[in-house]
Amino acid sequence: MGPVRIIAATTLLTTLSMVLSGCGLMAGQQPVSTAGMPGQIEPIHAATVTNDLAVFWVSSNGCTAKDDLRPVISGHGDASVITLRRISEDRCETPLGEGVEIMWSFEELGIKPGADVSINNPYLLPAT
Fold this sequence. Notes:
- The protein is α+β, with helices and mostly antiparallel strands.
- It has one domain (3-119).
- The protein is 17% helix and 36% strand.
- The protein has 2 helices and 7 strands.
- It has helices at 3-20, 106-109, and strands at residues 40-41, 44-50, 53-60, 69-76, 79-86, 96-105, 117-119.
- The strands form 2 sheets. Strands 1, 4, 5 and 7 form a 4-stranded mixed beta sheet that branches. A 3-stranded antiparallel beta sheet has the order 2-3-6.
- A hairpin with a 2-residue loop joins strand 4 (69-76) and strand 5 (79-86).
- The longest helix has 18 residues, at 3-20.
């Protein structure tokens, strides 16, 4: 691989890491401080906010349930920010490679229907 390709690959990786480190925030937003929140911040496989639902795909050793996680909601301007926290460890021994889907309605989260919502969790990169 020549020097130009190495530089291009390095630039691509740097750009990708900067995009992924945005933690799902909208353009121009800064990550919300997680100090004092319960449990541990949960790295996620994926997340989507649609139809007044917040849907997350999280790692599981085979026993992760909705009650093991706690969404912490904070305000950021006119938007809500969800920080997903793990409050109970999954001690099972059958890892699920793609994780499990966990969802909350805006009503459960105390978020107004149609509100702007962003996610404040780091994303896991796929295993290579």
